[in-house]
Specification:
By secondary structure, the chain is α+β, with helices and mostly antiparallel strands. It is built from 7 helices and 6 strands; from the N terminus they run βααβααβααβββα. It starts with 13 loop residues before the first strand and ends in an 8-residue tail after the last helix. The relative contact order is 0.24. Thymidine-5'-diphosphate binds next to loops.
């Protein structure tokens, strides 16, 4: 009788998250600090590039929010219309519980409610129109992360 040795499947513990530094990050000159905050989380950076965001990409990215009253503003915000037409820094982090870890580092959606030590708490603001300029985007869950990573990155742009 042969014995089957069960090895732990380490891949199932690992997941990826899309992290975007929105155009206000470059406008404010804090890209290095923000990347530092995410890199300190112990996750592996497997993709990194600058993207001049088109309307089509911004609308596809936020497609789940298309019916919200702030949709137009967040599309303009991602395109850099409010921040000198600056690009987005798009990144993919991978590792154990990457989505939850990156969301913790980012802080709450509303910068006024975010932990003051989080990226959004430190650098974000709420505009007079009520739009959350929260500096970073992080995938909301693993399914959304897979969709977003495919939207923003070609397979060849990511480390295996
Ligand atoms: P959402 O995907 O709900 O939040 P998160 O980015 O934390 O996953 O919302 C997308 C963006 O829409 C959010 O980053 C900022 C903006 N937003 C507003 O401006 N006002 C709001 O009331 C909400 C919920 C979001």
């Amino acid at each position: 009788m042969s014995l089957t040795v069960l090895k732990p499947d380490t891949r199932s513990c690992s997941e990826s998250a899309l992290v975007l530094i929105k155009p206000d990050g470059m406008h404010k000159g804090i890209v290095g600090e923000v990347i530092g905050a995410f890199s300190a989380g112990g996750l592996k950076l497997i993709g990194l590039k600058l993207v001049k965001v088109s309307g089509a990409l911004a609308r596809a990215h936020y497609r789940h929010l298309a019916t919200k009253k702030f949709f137009k503003e967040i599309v303009s915000y991602l395109m850099g219309d409010l921040h000198g037409k600056n690009p987005v820094v798009a990144m993919v982090y991978t590792g154990k519980d990457a989505v939850a870890a990156c969301r913790r580092i980012a802080g709450s959606t509303n910068p006024e409610e975010a932990d003051p030590k989080s990226v959004r708490g430190k650098f974000g603001r709420v505009t007079t129109k009520g739009v959350f300029e929260n500096l970073v985007h992080v995938s909301s869950d693993t399914k959304e992360a897979r969709r977003e990573i495919t939207l923003w990155f070609k397979k060849s742009e990511l480390l295996a």
